Amino acid sequence: QTVVTQEPSFSVSPGGTVTLTCGLSSGSVSTSYYPSWYQQTPGQPPRTLIYSTNTRSSGVPDRFSGSILGNKAALTITGAQADDESDYYCVLYMGSGISLFGGGTKLTVL
Amino acid sequence: QLQLQESGPGLVKPSETLSLTCTVSGGSISSSSYFWGWIRQPPGKGLEWIGNIYYSGSTFYNPSLKSRVTISVDTSKNQFSLKVTSVTAADTAMYYCARQIRTGSSKYYFDYWGQGTLLTVSS
After folding, report:
1. Using one digit for the tens of pLDDT, what is the confidence trace for A16-70?
2. Of the candidates A48, A51, A101, which has its C-beta nearest B49's C-beta?
3. What SS3 class is residue B95?
4. Is A41 on the interface with B (CB under 8 A)?
5. Residue A103: how many CA atoms within 13 Å on its side-chain side?
6. Which of B65, B66, B84 is nearest to B17 (CA)?
7. Which residue among A48, A102, A104 places its CB closest to the CB of B109?
8. What is the predicted pLDDT for the residue at A4?
9. B49-102: pLDDT as tens digits
10. B43 CB contacts (<8 Å, ≥6 apart)?
11. CB contact residues (below 8 A), chain B span 97-116, against chain A
12. In sequence order, which residues have a C-beta less than 8 Å from that of residue A42 and are 6 or more positions away?
């Protein structure tokens, strides 16, 4: 069974740039998977950040951007801020009505 | 503003059936533009897509849960529901309902989420 892969954890300094990735256990991620990204802080439901690879959801700061890097989807945070410290999840559309979440990346800003 | 609200018993005994309902307000569930989905998150763990339903009743399930899961819709009440049979402690989780865009050039993302309801499986 296909697994969506993400880095378990990542660390970035305030003001720095970090790129989180979203891959497949078998195969490459392309725009046809309509990758989307979500931010979740403790005790809250996820917040939609990016959809269809690189479209920012309403109200999302432009320091968040999405892309395809090599064979993975990527979420880049440019100029990280303290309140970006969160869990980040990607979702890939696998076809036939099925969507899969990645395991999530815990981002630390320090 | 669209709102989704999960409701459920909070506590279910092992081997029993879990039943949750999501009530949609501020918009119609009978739109061709959306799927309506269930996602869960065990304590301290990641998010897991359970399945989606279209207002017509068409369903789509995570293959890893398909044998135990049923999602249904009641358009007259603007609600959709989740049933999970033969629950174990591993089904203890926060359960979220969400809307997923299904049409247009930008699609297959979840744009509205409920606040979630905690379901504990324990005797």
Report:
1. 999 999 999 999 999 999 999 999 999 999 999 999 999 999 999 999 999 999 9
2. A101
3. strand
4. no
5. 11
6. B84
7. A48
8. 97
9. 999 999 999 999 999 999 999 999 999 999 999 999 999 999 999 999 999 999
10. B92, B93, B94
11. 100-101, 105-111, 113-116
12. none
d(CA A73, CA A92): 9
- What pLDDT, on the 0 to 100 scale, is given for residue B49? 98
Tokens of residue B112, six digits: 């509205």
Q: Measured between CB atoms, which of B47, B62, B64 is closest to A46?
A: B47
In whole angstroms, what is the distance from residue B18 CA to residue B85 CA? Answer: 6
Q: How far is CA B117 from CA A44, A93, B62, B108, in A?
A: 11, 25, 20, 23
Local structure of A58: helix, strand or coil: coil
CA angle B11, B17, B18 (to 5 degrees): 50
